[in-house]
Write a structure and sequence with these properties.
The chain has a single domain, classed as NAD(P)-binding Rossmann-like Domain (Rossmann fold), CATH 3.40.50.720. By secondary structure, it is of the alpha/beta class. The strands form two sheets. Strands 4-3-2-5-6-7-9 form a seven-stranded parallel beta sheet, sandwiched between helices. A two-stranded antiparallel ribbon has the order 1-8. Helix 1 crosses helix 6 and helix 4 runs parallel beside helix 5. It binds NADP nicotinamide-adenine-dinucleotide phosphate. NADP nicotinamide-adenine-dinucleotide phosphate (NAP) binds next to helix 1.
Length: 254
């Protein structure tokens, strides 16, 4: 059984306000004129392009302002959407935190703090478990679906030769474990759902901006990453659920 994007009627992008999430919203709208795209965002100032797009494409794009670490907001939205008797064929969670006004990724143990760890785990790990908890009810029971989250290669324990970035690396490793658990549980419930973390590749966004000047990795525009991510998801066998995917087709070591 395969998950084929063109058969999808409803797609949901979490964190579509800017960066790779916004590029995914635009790519889905461009590729699938018959489908409807839903997107969440949190920061209104940074999500102006998404908000403007939703005004100009009223019937095709519906957006929700949500603070995803607030579980009651997730619950309310899931109930509202379920009451419309609709199903979501594809979720992609693009919400992620590496740095903010208060902290930068830790270069060594000296910079490790409880606050940074807690905030990073909340956003990068726990939010995905809560989204799955409340939106599982929106997945189709009879047709293939996909529940995808943007993880990061630096979350691979097997691939870690450089160290540093304690909270971000650990939160992405935890995210990968959460997704593996969701994959097992959905299989047990006989949902035909492809559950997978995907590494989008190093991409020019606000998240990566302070760190990409001397990167040894190939740099992508957000639009390129969106294109690559959808190509990796499309046409996948549901049996591949629980794999750690990469933008270039590689399966990354856990
Ligand atoms: N860019 C890269 O090179 C790269 C590489 C590997 C993995 N990734 C992953 O790709 C995903 C997308 O990142 P991006 O590069 O597109 O960066 P981005 O433009 O900074 O997007 C980050 C997203 O996370 C949301 N977010 C950030 N902090 C939040 C918080 N405290 N509470 C709730 N939401 C929060 C942002 O929404 P608001 O601004 O509306 O809050 C935004 O939707 C992330 O999971 C990231 O870890 C990126």
């Amino acid at each position: 059984m395969k998950f084929e994007l063109y058969k999808g009627k409803h797609f949901f992008i979490w964190g579509g306000g800017h960066g790779i999430g916004l590029a995914l919203v635009k790519e889905l709208l461009a590729r699938f004129p018959e489908a409807k795209v839903f997107s969440s965002y949190r920061d209104e100032q940074r999500s102006k392009e998404l908000i403007d797009l939703s005004y100009s494409l009223k019937d095709r794009l519906e957006i929700f302002r949500i603070d995803p670490v607030n579980e009651s907001e997730l619950f309310d939205l899931a109930v509202d959407l379920k009451s419309l008797h609709m199903e979501i064929d594809l979720f992609i969670n693009c919400i992620g935190l590496l740095h903010n006004e208060e902290f930068q990724p830790e270069k060594s143990l000296r910079s490790v703090s409880m606050d940074q760890f807690m905030e990073t785990f909340k956003v990068n790990s726990v939010v995905t478990a809560l989204i799955a908890k409340h939106f599982e009810r929106l997945l189709p029971s009879k047709t293939p679906s996909a529940f995808i989250v943007l993880s990061a290669r630096v979350g691979s324990i097997g691939d870690n030769k450089m160290g540093g970035w304690y909270s971000y690396r650990a939160s992405k490793a935890a995210l990968n474990m959460i997704l593996q658990n969701i994959a097992v549980e959905f299989k047990r419930k006989r949902l035909q759902c492809l559950v997978a973390p995907i590494h989008p590749g190093t991409t020019k966004t606000d998240l990566s901006a302070p760190f990409i000047e001397n990167t040894k990795y190939r740099l992508h525009e957000a639009e390129e990453s969106a294109f690559n991510i959808l190509n990796q998801i499309d046409n996948r066998s549901i049996e591949e659920t629980g794999s750690f995917l990469s933008w270039d087709g590689e399966n990354i070591a856990w």
